[in-house]
Amino acid sequence: MQRYLYPARKRLEILSAVFAGGFGVHIWAAGFHGEPLLWAGLHNGQALIFGQIMSMAAFVHALGVRINGHWRWSPALRLLGMAFHTLMFAFLAIKGFGATGFYTYSWVTALLFMGALSALKDTKRALGWEIHGIRIDR
């Protein structure tokens, strides 16, 4: 077994999964009583689906963090979850252009993108793909 996340990075990834999962649950729950993402052009049913996808991506990400090297493909789970989070928050940033949502969601998107790049690097290492022309085998 090779660990890909060490304590400090693991804490950050857990926090990002909890943040995204909590955000998804909040959007999902708020969708029952209002239209939380109407400003982004998403009506009630669409906001509900958005929240569910965000929560599911957080679950996949957290699962990859939990497995952490016990399975060769665990970094790919992290990458998949982080990629979905990045794309979904980027969507909100674009829709929030001209308002405070753009600034806020752009920062979240950038931070999640950096995490996704880290997960991509770990996925390449786990699968023995080349990094900078050097083949990495286990």
Write up what this structure looks like:
This protein has 4 helices and 2 strands, in the order ααααββ. The chain has helices at residues 7-30, 44-67, 74-95, 100-127; strands at residues 130-131, 134-135. The chain has 138 residues and is mostly helical. A two-stranded antiparallel sheet has the order 1-2. 71% of the residues lie in helices and 3% in strands.
- Strand arrangement, largest sheet? 1-2
What's the total count of β strands? 2
What is the CA-atom radius of gyration, in angstroms? 16 Å
Order of helices and strands: HHHHEE
Which band does the percent of strand residues land in? under 5%
Provide the helix percentage.
Answer: over 70%
Distance between the termini: 10 Å
Low-confidence stretches: none
Indicate the overall shape: elongated
Q: Determine the mean pLDDT.
A: 87
Q: What does the largest sheet look like?
A: 2 strands, antiparallel
Total number of helical segments?
4
Structural class: mainly alpha
